[in-house]
Design a protein that fits this description.
The complex is a heterodimer of chains A (about 90) and B (about 100). With about 90 residues, chain A is mostly helical. Chain A has helices at about 1-25, 30-55, 60-80. The longest helix of chain A is centred in the middle third of the chain and has 26 residues, at about 30-55. Chain B is mainly α. The chains are: A mainly alpha (about 90), B mainly alpha (about 100).
């Protein structure tokens, strides 16, 4: 249990390091890359929370979060590329 | 006895995953360009998430939970390179537009 909590804290600090790049990133693509990285890290963090709190249903939340992260990444990259959301 | 071995093996996998996550974050902060940042983060993050989730699969054994975890691993390994390919294509074409 202690090891999982330690892994959670370390992973959370790395998430904040990635958030720095999302805030200061010069272009929109840097922010998109940083948010993509944060989505992967948060998926892993949700699984860790599920094992620390013994809540098995959080695994399903992690699956849905991975799906949403991918859709967000594709949508924002299309928005950056075309300057709009039409088809 | 086998439980202890599996626990130690899962801790080793956690350490490996944390190392790869750390390398990815370091690359995201330190590298100078959008494409190089993409190069650093995509592979390292995909591998790190795979290692940490695989550690939980080893600890859990054969159950519905570990099948769901393997599903998450497969999904992350499919979607993360796809999204990175899309972002890399856009970065390349934007760079061509500027020149």
């Amino acid at each position: 249990m202690f090891i999982e909590t330690l892994v959670m804290v370390l992973l959370l600090s790395m998430t904040f390091i990635s958030l720095v790049r999302a805030v200061i990133g010069p272009s929109m693509l840097d922010r998109l890359i940083a948010i993509n990285v944060i989505a992967t890290k948060v998926t892993t963090l949700i699984v860790l929370v599920a094992f620390v709190l013994n809540q098995e249903m959080f695994i399903d939340v992690a699956m849905v979060y991975a799906l949403l992260g991918f859709i967000m990444s594709v949508g924002v990259s299309k928005f950056v590329f075309k300057g709009g959301l039409e088809s | 006895m086998s439980g202890i071995i599996l626990d130690v093996l899962s801790y080793v996998l956690f350490a490996l995953g944390l190392f790869f996550f750390f390398v990815g974050s370091l690359g995201l902060i330190r590298l100078p360009d959008a494409i190089t940042r993409l190069h650093a983060t995509t592979k390292a993050d995909t591998l790190g998430a795979g290692f940490i989730l695989l550690g939980f699969v080893l600890r859990e054994g054969v159950s519905l939970l570990s099948i769901k975890l393997i599903l998450i691993i497969v999904f992350v390994w499919l979607t993360n390179p796809t999204g990175a390919h899309l972002i890399g294509k856009i970065a390349y074409e934007k760079k061509e537009d500027q020149q």
